[in-house]
Specification:
A mainly alpha (280), B alpha/beta (354), C mainly alpha (273), A: 280 residues, C: 273 residues, mainly alpha, MetI-like fold, 2 domains, 11 helices, disordered N terminus, disordered C terminus
Chain lengths: 280, 354, 273
C-alpha cells in the first residue's frame, strides 16, 4: 500500500496543494511568481468578466448535460428493455466509442460540420442549393461535441439502476390504474435517480473543465473555464490567477458532487415511497 | 508569426524527413543543439546541412505559438533550449527576464548581411540580444474571385459587407488581434490608454458577431477551401494561399500595418553557446537565408539574400518585393510591460463576449 | 433490498412500444457511430477529402509509415503507456489488496483513490506543471510517465478491488496455517483469483494512457523526444487537416478498441468502473 499512497501523495496531493498556495501569490510583470501574499487572485475570480465566463461555462456544460441525460436515459431504458441476451452486447457497443481517442472523436465533428463537410454535402444531395449553413464554430457545435463525447457514460450510469428495476413494481402500478406516464414519473424515475445523478455529474464536471472542445469546435469564439485556465498557464503566464481559477473549478466540482450525494440520498427515500406506492 | 507548411510541401518534407529519420531517431536524445522554431519555418534539411558545414548536430523542436514557447521558457528558465525563434516583443520580454544571452557579434560575422535598417530596429537597436530572421506586415488576405469589392481598409474586416458576414477570420494571438482594432481607430499598435483601449475593445466585440472564427493556424486552408473569404493574415502566410490559389491576394489596409519581426535568440541557460552562435551565423548565410525566403515565402532582412530572389518569384508574390524603406515605416509591436495584463483581460472580454 | 430482476423484456411489450424502443436504440447508435464510420471511410478515400469519394486507396496509411514525426510520437506513446501501466498495475494491485485485506475503508483513503479519477484533467495538468517546474525537474517522457501512473493506479486499484470484494480471505489464513509463506500464499492463492482483474485493469490503464492528451501536453518537455501521439494529433488538427490524420485516427481507434475488448472479455463489467 505504502508505495502507491506515497505516489499519489507526491504527484497529486502535493502538486494540488502547491497550486492552492500559488493562488495566494502575485504574478511578476513578465510572468513568474512574486512571493507576496495576496487575495487579489480570488477577488479576480469574482470580477464580472471572469464570473461571467464561469456562468457561461456552466450554461454550456449544463445544456450538454441535459441533452446527454435525456438521450442517454432513453438509450439506457431501451437497452434495459431489450432481450436479456442482447443487453451486454448493446451496452458494450454503446460504451465502446468512449474508449477511443477524445481528440479523434472531436475531430470527427469538424469533418462533419465544416462548411464543405459531410452535412453540407448531404444537404446538397437532397437538393439544397442555398448557402451552406454555419454549423462549425458555433455554441451548438461545442455542445454537440460534448454530448457526443460523454454520452456513453450516461448510458452506462443509467443502465445500472434501470436493469435492476423490479418489473413487478411497474406492473403493480399499472394494475392499480396508474397511466404509463404516472408509473414512469412516480415509480421508475425515482428509482433511477442515482444513476441519472452520477451520469449528470460526470458530464457536467468534464464539460465545464474542458478546453479542447471549445478550442477545436468553437473556433476560439467561446471561452470556457478550461480555456481560461489553459490561457493563464500557457498564454498569459499568470500562474497565480490560473491557480485560483483551478481552485474555483475544484470547488464547483465538490459542490456538484455534494448535490449528487444529496440527490442520491433523497432518491433512496423516494424509492421507498415509490415501492410503497406500487405495493400499496 | 505562426507559420506552417502548406500541404503540398509537407508531403515533400515528409519524404525528405524519412531519409534521415533513421539517423535522427536514435541520437535525437543526444542532440548537441536544441532549436525551437515554428513548424515549417526553416529548411527541413537545415540541421543536416548545418552538421555537414560545422560538424555540430542538433535537433529542431516545434512550437505552435509565441505564447506556448514563452510559457515553457519561463517555466524552465530556458533550460534545454539553445536557440529559440520568437517574435520581437517576446524576445524583449525574454531579455527583460534575463533569459537571453547577449549576441556575440564577433561570432556571427554574417550579421553584415542584414539590411542597415534591420540592425537598428526599435525593439533591439544594435542586435544586442536578438537577430531578425524574417519580417513583414499584417494585413488582409482575401479571395479576389469571390469578394464583390476588394478590401482596402481594416473596416472591411471589422464591419464587413453582408456577403462577407460569417466568412472572415481574425488572428487569435492577443497582440495582433488588438492591432487590427488599434490600427482601424488610428491608434498606435502599442496604445495602452484605457479610454482608447475601451473603444478598441468595443469595436472588436462588435466585429466578433460577423466572424467565422479566431484562427492563427488554419486560416490559410479556410481561404483555399472557400470557408472564409477575407482573413487577417501575416503577409508570408497569405503567400501560402497565393501559391495554391492565385486568386488569393494580399493587401495592406490604408490605415497601415504593424512591422512584425521574428527573431532568433540564444538562451542564457544554453550549454552550447558557441554552437548556438554558429547556428545563427549559418542561418544568416546569404544562400541559406535566400532559401528560407523562397521556400517559406516570408521576407528576410538579409540584403544579398533578397537581391538573389528570381524575378518570377517576386512577380508571383508581390508583397515579397516591398521596399525595405516602406516596410520600416510601420510601427513594431513592443513589449508593454504591466499593460500586457490589461491586454490579456481585454482579449478575454472579447473572446467571452456573446 | 429488492431482488435482482430485469425489466420487462421487449418481447412482452406492445408492438408499438417495441418499435419505439428499437427506434431510440437505432438513432442513438447512429449518432455514436456515424462520425467514427465517416472518419474510417475517409481514411480509405483516394482524394482524402470529405467532399467526394474518389476511389479506394491505402495511400494515406502508406504515407503514415513514412512520417517520421508520427512514428516517433507513436513510439513515445508506447513507451509511456507500457511503463506507466506496468508501474500502475503493480502499485494499484498491491494497494487494492492492502485495503481489502485489512478492510481499511477510511473516508480520506477512499477520497485519495477516487480523486485522480474525478479531478478535472486540466487541474491535475497545471498542478504537475507547477510542481515539476518549481522543483526544477526537466520535463520529458519520464514526467509524463510519473503523471500517468497517478490516474492509472487509481483505475487498476478499483478494478482489482471490485474482484476482491467477493474474495474469501479465510482461504489465505488456511494457507498460512498450513505453513505457506506470505509470498507463496499470494502466488498460489490470491493471485490466481485476482489475475483476470489485474490484467483487465492493466489493459484499461494502457488504453487510458495511450489516449491521454491534456496531462501529457502540460507535463511534456521540449520537442519531439517527448511528443506523444495525442499531442501530435492535436497539432495536426490545429495546423490544417491533412488526410493522413484519418488513417492515423483509424489505427489509434482500432488499438484502443482491441485493448478494451480484451479487457472486457477478461473481466465483465470493467467498462463501468
Amino acid at each position: 500500500m505504502a508505495p502507491a499512497l506515497a505516489w499519489l501523495t507526491a504527484l497529486m496531493v502535493v502538486p494540488c496543494a502547491l497550486v492552492l498556495a500559488l493562488a495566494f501569490f502575485r504574478r511578476g510583470t513578465y510572468g513568474g511568481i512574486e512571493y507576496t501574499f495576496t487575495l487579489e487572485n480570488f477577488g479576480l475570480v469574482f470580477d464580472p468578466l471572469y464570473a461571467g465566463i464561469f456562468l457561461n461555462s456552466a450554461r454550456i456544460a449544463g445544456t450538454a448535460t441535459l441533452i446527454a441525460v435525456v438521450i442517454g436515459y432513453a438509450a439506457a431504458y431501451a437497452i434495459a428493455a431489450a432481450p436479456r441476451r442482447l443487453q451486454p452486447v448493446l451496452l458494450f457497443f454503446a460504451v465502446l466509442p468512449f474508449w477511443s481517442n477524445y481528440l479523434i472523436r472531436t475531430y470527427a465533428w469538424i469533418v462533419l460540420l465544416n462548411r464543405e463537410g459531410l452535412v453540407t454535402q448531404l444537404l446538397r444531395w437532397f437538393g439544397y442549393t442555398g448557402e451552406p449553413p454555419s454549423m462549425l464554430y458555433t455554441e451548438g457545435a461545442v455542445i454537440a461535441g460534448l454530448v457526443y463525447n460523454y454520452l456513453p457514460f450516461v448510458i452506462l450510469a443509467c443502465y445500472a439502476p434501470l436493469s435492476r428495476l423490479n418489473p413487478e413494481l411497474a406492473e403493480a402500478s399499472r394494475d392499480l390504474g396508474a397511466s404509463a406516464l404516472t408509473t414512469f414519473r412516480r415509480v421508475i424515475l425515482p428509482l433511477t435517480v442515482p444513476g441519472i445523478a452520477a451520469g449528470a455529474v460526470f458530464v457536467f464536471v468534464l464539460s465545464i473543465g474542458n478546453f479542447v472542445t471549445p478550442a477545436l469546435l468553437g473556433g476560439g469564439r467561446f471561452q470556457m473555464i478550461g480555456n481560461l485556465v489553459y490561457d493563464q498557464f500557457l498564454t498569459a503566464n499568470d500562474w497565480p490567477f490560473g491557480a485560483a481559477l483551478a481552485m474555483a473549478l475544484i470547488v464547483i466540482m465538490l459542490l456538484v458532487l455534494m448535490a449528487q450525494a444529496i440527490a442520491a440520498d433523497r432518491a433512496s427515500g423516494h424509492a421507498a415511497e415509490a415501492r410503497s406506492n406500487a405495493d400499496g | 508569426m505562426t507559420a506552417t507548411t502548406p500541404r503540398h510541401r509537407s508531403l515533400k518534407i515528409s519524404s525528405i524527413a524519412l531519409g534521415f529519420a533513421l539517423t535522427l531517431s536514435a541520437p535525437a536524445f543526444a542532440a548537441d543543439l536544441v532549436i525551437s522554431n515554428w513548424d515549417g519555418y526553416m529548411a527541413p534539411d537545415a540541421m543536416a546541412a548545418f552538421k555537414t558545414a560545422t560538424g555540430v548536430s542538433g535537433e529542431v523542436v516545434v512550437h505552435a505559438t509565441n505564447e506556448e514557447i514563452m510559457g515553457k521558457l519561463v517555466a524552465s528558465g530556458g533550460k534545454g533550449y539553445d536557440v529559440v525563434f520568437v517574435s520581437s516583443p517576446f524576445a524583449e520580454v525574454l531579455n527583460k527576464l534575463g533569459l537571453t544571452e547577449p549576441i556575440d557579434h564577433a561570432k556571427v560575422p554574417n550579421l553584415a548581411n542584414l539590411y542597415p535598417e534591420a540592425t537598428k530596429l526599435p525593439h533591439d537597436v544594435g542586435n544586442a540580444f536578438s537577430v531578425p530572421y524574417t519580417w513583414g506586415t499584417t494585413g488582409l488576405c482575401y479571395r479576389s474571385d469571390l469578394v464583390k469589392v476588394a478590401p482596402t481598409s481594416w473596416s472591411d474586416l471589422l464591419a464587413p459587407s453582408d456577403d462577407l458576414k460569417g466568412k472572415t477570420t481574425m488572428l487569435a494571438t492577443d497582440r495582433w488581434l488588438l492591432a487590427a482594432g488599434q490600427l482601424d481607430k488610428g491608434y498606435s499598435v502599442n496604445e495602452t490608454d484605457p479610454a482608447k483601449m475601451a473603444e478598441v475593445k468595443d469595436l472588436l466585440i462588435s466585429a466578433k458577431k460577423t466572424l467565422l472564427a479566431y484562427d492563427d493556424t488554419t486560416f490559410y486552408s479556410k481561404l483555399v477551401s472557400g470557408e472564409a473569404l477575407l482573413v487577417q493574415a501575416w503577409d508570408g502566410w497569405c503567400n501560402y494561399g497565393i501559391a495554391e490559389k492565385p486568386e488569393i491576394k494580399y493587401v495592406i489596409p490604408k490605415e497601415g500595418s504593424d512591422l512584425w519581426v521574428d527573431t532568433m535568440v540564444v538562451m542564457k541557460a544554453s550549454e552550447h553557446k558557441d554552437a548556438a552562435f554558429q547556428f545563427i551565423n549559418f542561418m544568416l548565410d546569404a544562400k541559406n537565408h535566400a532559401w528560407a525566403a523562397q521556400n517559406i515565402d516570408y521576407k528576410v532582412p538579409n540584403k544579398p539574400a533578397m537581391e538573389s530572389l528570381p524575378a518570377d518569384f517576386l512577380a508571383k508574390f508581390p508583397n515579397m518585393a516591398m521596399p525595405v524603406a516602406d516596410l520600416v515605416k510601420f510601427e513594431q509591436l513592443r513589449d508593454v510591460g504591466d499593460a500586457q495584463r490589461d491586454y490579456s483581460k481585454i482579449v478575454s472580454e472579447i473572446k467571452a463576449a456573446q | 433490498m429488492l431482488p435482482k430482476r430485469e425489466a420487462t423484456p421487449m418481447a412482452e411489450r406492445s408492438p408499438a412500444t417495441r418499435r419505439t424502443l428499437w427506434l431510440v436504440l437505432s438513432l442513438v447508435f447512429a449518432f455514436l457511430y456515424i462520425p467514427i464510420a465517416v472518419l474510417v471511410a475517409l481514411s480509405f478515400n483516394e482524394g482524402g477529402l470529405p467532399t467526394a469519394w474518389s476511389g479506394f486507396s491505402l495511400k494515406w496509411y502508406a504515407s503514415l509509415t513514412g512520417n517520421s514525426e508520427i512514428l516517433s510520437a507513436a513510439l513515445n506513446t508506447l513507451i509511456v503507456a507500457l511503463v506507466s501501466t506496468a508501474i500502475a498495475t503493480l502499485l494499484g494491485t498491491l494497494l487494492a489488496i492492502g485495503i481489502e485485506m485489512r478492510r481499511q475503508y477510511g473516508k480520506g483513503l477512499e477520497a485519495l483513490i477516487f480523486a485522480p479519477m474525478i479531478i478535472p484533467d486540466i487541474v491535475l495538468a497545471i498542478a504537475l506543471l507547477s510542481f515539476f517546474s518549481m522543483l526544477n525537474i526537466t520535463m520529458g517522457l519520464h514526467t509524463i510517465i510519473l503523471a500517468h501512473v497517478v490516474f492509472n493506479l487509481a483505475f487498476v486499484c478499483s478494478v482489482v478491488r471490485a474482484r476482491l470484494k467477493s474474495f474469501d480471505w479465510s482461504i489465505t489464513e488456511a494457507s498460512a496455517d498450513l505453513g505457506a509463506s506470505a509470498l507463496t500464499t499470494f502466488r498460489r492463492v490470491t493471485l490466481p483469483v485476482i489475475l483476470p482483474a489485474v490484467v483487465a485493469g492493466a489493459l484499461l490503464a494502457f488504453t487510458l494512457s495511450v489516449d491521454e492528451f491534456i496531462i501529457a501536453f502540460f507535463a511534456a518537455g521540449a520537442g519531439r523526444a517527448s511528443t506523444t501521439l495525442p499531442m501530435q494529433i492535436y497539432a495536426m488538427i490545429r495546423f490544417g487537416i491533412t488526410p493522413e490524420i484519418n488513417a492515423l485516427a483509424s489505427i489509434v481507434m482500432a488499438v484502443s478498441i482491441t485493448a478494451l475488448t480484451l479487457s472486457q472479455r477478461l473481466n465483465r463489467g470493467v467498462i463501468g468502473q
